[in-house]
Amino acid sequence: DAEVSRRAALKAGGVALGGVGALAMAAPAARAEPWSWSPRGSVAGHGAGADPRTVWDPEADPVIANVLEKHNVNRINAELRTWVRNGQPVPKGLPSELRDFIEYARILPSWTDHRKLAAGFEYNKKHGTVISVLYAFASGMMSTVIPNEARAVYYSKGGQFFKDRIAKTAKLGYDIGTVNAYQPDGQMIVTSVKTRMIHAAVRHLLPQSPHWPKQYVPISQEDLMVTWHSLPTTIMQTLVKWGIPTPPDQSKGYLHTWQVCGHLLGIKDEYIPASWRQANGQSRKILKPVLAPTREGVRLADDLLRLGNELDLTLLSKPILGAFTRYILGDKIANWIRVPREPVWSPLLEFSWPPYLAVRSGIVTAAPITDNAYWLFDEFLRQFVLWYMSELRMPLSIELPQHNRHF
Ligand code: HEM
User: Which numbered atom of ligand 1 lies nearest the CA of 157?
Assistant: First the structure.
């Protein structure tokens, strides 16, 4: 059961011991140097300092494992579909152990600061379109070169129904930027707690996949923080690099929206960085060194770049989306995931994107950019927003998976 495999993984220092030959992938390597990030830099300010590779989600995992084994999951998913807004009561039809867990998990952390959240919203409101482009091309594409995440997604159900998976991930990026995200009429608490439950389900299901090393439990606390850094940390670094006006209170506010999200996703407070300085430091330690290509990640990247093909939006073609990826993540990562340089758009981005943003965000009134380039970027953003709003218009419900990817 999940508890046994967790203990086994712990004993093995997080290294998988699956049967040779059954493995389509290598198990993640042990840490070269002992874990040394100090919990003093966290929102908790203190902690035991346990290596986050050896911690999963002891509150959610046994509850969800039991639900998947013993209950009618279709019925539970039908109940969960009715739970949408933060202020709504937890559906009565859920098993009592699951209701108890949700009642506990939905509580905002004591350190939630609503003034900071409001400043974070101001930032999202002002720069929402550019931020959503970065969720897709900085965070989304980066997930394909985070080996633990790329493999977990590829071999889970979400890898098979990828468009649906992306739409639901986009929902989280959308919900976190809304004015009432964490208020009773918002949806971010529900979205985060459901996501926490999905991750617990993945911990239970993936080790049962013939493609997965049996004793290796995915989505450790470290994995969660690695992915977290691919989101707000990477995005804030890029926005600052692009010269987007970022007043300190809004910068702290944007961070805070993600600190609260991290807590609701089940990340322990002792691993959630208290400031950007701490976040950048932790990211250098745990995100940068793990980035690498995998067979699974290359496939996912290709799937991602083809998502725009479905609507008749000419600027969302694979080569143009690839050019944005290369521009934002750099040549090394683009080469890893086999995204070629694009002869027209790559130079256009290199020369004209910074001046375009400077005009668009009101930093300057005139900039060295042709009308044509300006129009192309405007049109790209317009089509991008059309696309993701159309994705969000479908009824989206984050539901418990009951199986892995079928090959
Ligand atoms: C599912 C977000 C970290 C692997 C999801 C979903 C969301 C999400 C919104 C629901 C999508 C759906 O229902 O299809 C996040 C966020 C993270 C994070 C915000 C960190 C801050 C991770 C990590 C891994 C991971 C670290 C793996 C190492 C998965 C998998 C699924 C999932 C395998 C389920 C796909 C499926 O079978 O439907 N995540 N995630 N996630 N996530 Fe995460």
Answer: 37
**Residue for token pair 């030959």:** 21
- Residue in 294, 377, 304 with CA at minimum distance from that of residue 333: 294
Structure-token pair, residue 131: 């931020």
**224 C-alpha to center of ligand 1: Å?**
9
153 lines ligand 1 (CB under 6 A): yes
Q: Name residue, tokens 């758009």.
A: 345
How far apart are alpha carbons 163 and 53 in whole angstroms?
29
pTM: 0.93
Q: How many CB atoms lie within 10 A of CB 270?
A: 22
Classified as helix, coil or strand, 85 is coil
- Rounded to two decimals, the ipTM of the complex is 0.98
Q: Match 């994995």 to its residue by tokens.
A: 223
**Residues 272-306 pLDDT 10s:** 999 999 999 999 999 999 999 999 999 999 999 99
* SS3 track for 187-250: CHHHHHHHHHHHHHHHHHHHHHCCCCCCCCCCCCHHHHHHHHHHHHHHHHHHHHHCCCCCCHHH
